[in-house]
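Hi there, hope your week has been kind to you so far. For a while now I've been wondering how a particular protein folds. I'm sending you its amino acid sequence along with the C-alpha cells. Could you read through the record and tell me how the C-alpha cells relate to the sequence? Take your time with it, there's no hurry, and the full record follows here.
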Amino acid sequence: MSATPQHTPAPASTSNAATPQEPQQVPTTAVAGPSTAPAQPQQTRQEAEEARKDRTLAEFLLMLDDYEPLIPSEVTDYYLQRVGFECEDVRLKRLLSLAAQKFVSDIAADAYQHARIRTNATGGRARANQPMGPGSIKDKTRTTLTMDDLSAALGEYGINARKPDFYL
C-alpha cells in the first residue's frame, strides 16, 4: 500500500521535475481558476480596448495635422480666447473647430428638413394653382429656409432663437 501512494506522487513529481514550483501553482489555479480566469481576460480585453482607442485617437490627431477646417483658425482662436481657453496645440484647436463645424452642419441640416416638411405640408395645394412653365421646375426643387425653420432646429438643441414679442 505504501508503494502505491509513493508511485502516484512519483509520476507527478517526474512530470514536474523540470519546474518544481508548478505543482504549487497548478492546484491554486485549479481551485481559484474559475473565479480568476475570467477576470484576467476581462482586464486584458479592457486594456486592449483602451490601447486601441489610444491608437485611434493618436491616428486621428495625426490626420488633423493636414486638415484645414472650414472655420478659420483666427475665428476659432478669437472665440477660444474670449472664453478663457488657452492652448498652444494646433491639433486641439482644429478638433474644436471641427466640432463647431459639425454642430453648425447638423443645425443647417435640421433646419432644411423643417423647411422641406413645411413646404410639402403647405406647398401641395399652393402648387396646384401655379401655372406650369420653365420657372415652376426650379420652384419645386428650391427650398427657402426661414427664421422659423432655423428656430425650430435650434430648439431641438436647447437654443432659443425666437424673437421676443413686439408690443405697441
